[in-house]
Each structure stands twice: as structure tokens, then as C-alpha cells.
Design brief:
By secondary structure, this protein is an alpha+beta fold. The chain has three domains: 82 residues, no CATH class; 60 residues; 70 residues, no CATH class. The strands form two sheets. It has a five-stranded antiparallel beta sheet. It has a two-stranded antiparallel sheet with strand order 6-7. Strand 6 and strand 7 form a beta hairpin. Helix 1 packs antiparallel against helix 2. The longest helix is centred in the first third of the chain and has 31 residues. The protein is extended and about 70 Å long. 18% of the residues are buried. Bound molecules: zinc ion (2 copies).
Length: 234
């Protein structure tokens, strides 16, 4: 998966529009850096910098944006109810507004907190790769329906306790190719790091961002789409 180019791949600074160099470090912006394979590989070993503040910073900004959006929406709804006369400008009206605000915020707060809860990390070895064929009915614009077939890709991963579990990669064929049988992989466990890291990165010229899933060459130090560090052996 390739996303847009928003961050400097050398220093991780956010890029400004209209420049062909990073404004912080003068690194040239490589628009199609991922299309060209490089001789640089990712080495052998786990990426150790998962506590890098950039991973968390991205999350916090996302949470703040969600809260701000909900607050504006809520203010708009309550404002409308007063304006339209459904709520009167008296004690009763204000208490209705307070109850509405509480009912509105409660599920959102629970959702945001549960999202940030720590998931457990695990490691394992890929023992098999499965491609499950599926079909679905699709309706075209002229009202006819037809059957489309597609594949769901899965890794079978044996954990340290000897138990094998399936891990879905969805419909991403490129991601499915990236992982090989006998690869050791690590899931970093935090709710905000969704990717699976390979222990041995010597045979790859690129990797997928742990945070956003963007594909980055190992010649990069930071993800072009989200500015998080590119995972390499230390
Ligand atoms: Zn830079
Ligand atoms: Zn990223």
C-alpha cells in the first residue's frame, strides 16, 4: 500500500507544500522512492525504538481531533435545540442540555479509552500461508448483479507455547507476498501499532510502517506518510 508523501524520510519533519526539499534538513523529496528498489536491506534483529514518541504523538493528535469534532457537533445540536425552541432558556432547558451532553459523551469516552488500552505483544513463526477464495454478489450501475471472486490472505503463526493461530492480512496480496514461511514475526502489542515485524529483514529492500501500513524503502529513516520511524534492526 502506498499513501501520500507528507513527511521527510530523512528527519521525519512534516513537509510543506510547494517545496522539493525538506524545510528542516534540505533532504530532497523522493516522490516515488518506493517504486525503485534499493540495495539497502533492513538487517537482522528486532526494531527497538517502539517507544519513540512519534508513534504516540500521532495517536494523541488523532484523539484530540476526534474530541474537538464531537465537541463542535454537540455544541451545534444543543445550540439548534435552544434556537428552535425545543429547549427553553431556563433551568429545565439547561438541565436537558446537560443530560444530552452526558449521554452523548459517555459512549465516546469509553470508546476512546478502550482504543488506547494496551494489547498484548506476541512473537511467533510463520508455519503456513493460506489464501481463502471467497465470492460475493455485486450490483452494477445498470441493475444487473454478478458474482465477483476474491481472496482473503492469512498467515498461520505458531507462538512460543506451540499453539498455531491464524492472522488475517485481509485482501492485501502484496503484504501476503512480503511474509514468508519460517519468518519469525513480532506483533508489538500496543493498540496503536498494528503491523507485524519480521525479525530477518536482510532479503527485503522495503518494509511496511508499523503505524500506518505505508510501504517504505530501507533507505528511508522515517515513513513518508506518517513520519514514524521505519523499522530496521538496531
Ligand atoms: Zn528533513
Ligand atoms: Zn507510516
Amino acid at each position: 500500500m502506498e499513501f501520500g508523501h507528507f513527511f521527510c524520510t530523512h528527519c521525519g519533519a512534516r513537509l510543506k507544500n510547494g517545496y522539493n526539499k525538506c524545510q528542516s534538513c534540505s533532504w530532497p523529496i523522493d516522490e516515488d522512492g518506493d517504486a525503485v528498489p534499493t540495495a539497502v536491506n533492513g538487517g537482522v534483529g528486532w526494531f527497538e525504538d517502539v517507544k519513540n514518541r512519534r508513534f504516540a504523538k500521532y495517536d494523541n493528535q488523532h484523539v484530540m481531533a476526534s474530541i474537538l469534532f464531537l465537541f463542535i457537533l454537540l455544541a451545534g445540536i444543543i445550540g439548534y435545540l435552544f434556537y428552535s425552541g425545543n429547549f427553553e432558556m431556563n433551568a429545565t432547558g439547561f438541565s436537558y442540555a446537560a443530560v444530552l451532553a452526558a449521554l452523548f459523551c459517555l459512549p465516546e469516552t469509553i470508546f476512546l479509552l478502550s482504543k488506547n488500552r494496551r494489547k498484548r505483544e506476541w512473537e511467533g513463526k510463520i508455519v503456513d500461508k493460506l489464501s481463502v477464495e471467497k465470492t460475493r454478489r455485486i450490483k452494477s450501475d445498470d441493475g444487473h448483479s454478478y458474482t465477483e471472486s476474491y481472496s482473503i490472505y492469512q498467515l498461520v503463526v505458531e507462538r512460543a507455547n506451540g499453539k498455531a493461530r491464524k492472522y488475517s492480512l485481509g485482501r492485501d496480496a502484496a503484504l501476503f507476498d512480503y511474509y514468508r514461511v519460517n519468518d519469525y514475526i513480532r506483533y508489538h502489542g500496543k493498540a496503536h501499532l498494528k503491523g507485524l515485524e519480521k525479525y530477518d529483514k536482510r532479503f527485503d529492500s522495503f518494509t511496511y510502517c508499523l503505524k500506518c501500513g505505508n510501504r517504505n524503502n530501507f533507505s528511508r529513516d522515517y515513513c513518508s506518510a506518517c513520519g514514524c520511524p521505519v523499522i530496521k534492526a538496531e
